[in-house]
Structures are given as structure tokens and as C-alpha cells.
Amino acid sequence: MRNLVPVLVVLAVIAGLWYAAVAPMNIRGALMVAERSGETVVPEGTSTRFDVSVWKLMADNPDHIHLAYGLDRPRLPTPGQVAGELWASTGAMALEGNGFSNRSLIYHGWITLRSTLWGFLLGTFLGLLGAVAIVHARVVDMSLMPWAIISQTIPIVALAPMIIVLSSQVGIDGRGVPKAIISAYLCYFPVLVGMVTGLRSPDRSQLDLLKTYNASQWQVFSKLRMPASLPYLFASLKIGIAAALVGTIVGELPTGAISGLGARILIGDQFGTPLAIWAALFAAAILAGILVTLLDVTQRLTLRRMGVR
User: Among 264, 237, 242, 240, which Cα is nearest to 253's?
Assistant: First the structure.
């Protein structure tokens, strides 16, 4: 409960700012609706109002501000509208037995989650492999680490279409594998950096102590470096799983995919349905929260079993 209060306070502040921003964002659409229904609007004419600031429109038309909170296609929906759309495309459809229809966000979330998990596993494996090599071989440290850093400066939006085209050229059909590669691309770097830091975290005195016992490299790794790196590993995995989810969604945007949360965002933009876009965004955020929470629980259980507080 002590940890829940700050979270609820921040959530209340965000919701308050969100509601306050709805009126100026939607006032032009609200005045258009009012004018079409025969009510008096100042100034008259949609083209005339484009040259007037939203603050003056709100000051001149205070009786129509409430319409900004109930538009069918608002520029900025209210939190209630987003929650309603999210429920309509998830819980309500599941209760009707259509949870995995192609109109359900549960189905699209599963498509995104599947590629995210494959990309996360691949990225984590490459990150761990690279970290072990960097820590144990100075040549790899000097050659691989700079390229790993430089690789993260390439915009993923530009790289994603290239990965998809190259995947199709080598005979990889479907969108799952390219999305997993893009996801792994974003995931491996935080794992690599975190594990390099973790594997180097033991003190010189601890390493010297194992040398006095004539411990082998494998024993130093398994008995000292790996246990010491676990807190760093879990912190990196939490960042990595969120990055993998972002990579998958970005990979769904330029591919012409019709399934997945990224595809829902793109289709919502093309058909002018902001509520669908916001619902998909919140579905992605909820999915990321669940994945990070699962990793956090795993971290707590693992470290508690190892006697680490």
C-alpha cells in the first residue's frame, strides 16, 4: 500500500492533465459539430476558425466546450473513451467468445507477443554470448564493443524495412522472423552492456582469493562472476523486454502486416480512427507492464533463493 500511493498520485496527475488537454485539442471539431447542428458559433465557418487560436475559440464559445469530450473521432480522446474502446476490443469480445477474432486486441496482442518473445530470447542469447566474450578476451572487448555501441545509432525505423527485404531475399516467408530479428536488435544491447558490467563487478580481492584456490576460469565464472552479475542481468532483461516489444511493433509498421498491435496502430491511422490507435497503444503498454512485472517477480524469487537482498 505504501508503494501504491505514489503510483496512484502520479496516475491522478497524468489523468488530470490529460482531461485538461482534451478541450483545446478537440475544440475545433466540437465547434464544427455544434455549427452543423444549427447552434451559434463564433466565428462562423470552419475555414475562418483555422486562423483563430484554440484558446480564443474556447473563450468565445464556452457553452460548446463540453462537446469536445464526446466526439466520435476526437484528436485527443478522454481516458474514459480509451478505456471504453479497450474494453470493447478485449474484455467484451472475450465474454462474447470472440477473444481471438481478428478484431480483438487480444489476438493482435498475441501476434505481437509471440515475435517479442522470440526476439527477446535471441537478443538475450546474443547479449550474454557477447558479454562473456568481451569480459574474457581483450581483443573482443576492443573490437566488438565499439561496433555494438555504433549499431544502436542506426534508426530502427530505417533498418526495419531493410531487414524485411533481406529476409525475403533469402527465402524467409512470413513476417514473424523479420519482426523477431528487429526485436532482437533492440534487445541485445542493454543485455550486453548490463552483463559486461555485472561480470566485471567482483572485486580484485575476490578474484585473487579464487586464484589462491587454483580455481579454473569456468569455476571463477560459475562461482563468482555469474552470481555477482545476476542483479545486473535482471535489470537489463527488464529494459530488454520493453525494447523487444518496441522493436516488434516498429517491425509491424512498414511491412504491410494486418496482424499485431503495430498493424492496428497503422490501420487506425489510415482509416482515421484515433480511438483504435489509442486502444492499441494502451494494450502495448499493458503488455509491457505484464512482461516487466513477470521478470521482476522472477528476479525477487531468484535473488531470495540465493540469499541476496
Answer: 264
